[in-house]
Amino acid sequence: MTCKQLVERLYDFIQGELEEELSRHMQEHLDCCSHCVTYVKTYQITIHLSRRLSESPVPDQLLQRLREVLKKAENES
Ligand SMILES: [Zn+2]
Predict the structure, then answer these.
(1) What is the pTM of this model?
(2) Contacts for 24-31 with beta carbons within 8 Å, 24 or more apart?
(3) Of 1, 5, 43, 74, whose CB count within 10 A is highest?
């Protein structure tokens, strides 16, 4: 699994809606990729905060910004 694939399936992963096999692949990727661990943590905090602040879903703009953060982290490694 690549970082890009992980990011694409992250929402399902966090919601617990991913197939068992994919979920395992993601967990394995997270075990060896600190960038994605940081990304997942940021993502979870963002969702948590947005749920507390309002009932509206996470704005696309915010998700886009998170993706840019990950891309930047990848480029720096
Ligand atoms: Zn990764």
Answers:
(1) 0.62
(2) 25/1, 26/1, 28/1, 29/1, 29/3, 30/6
(3) 43
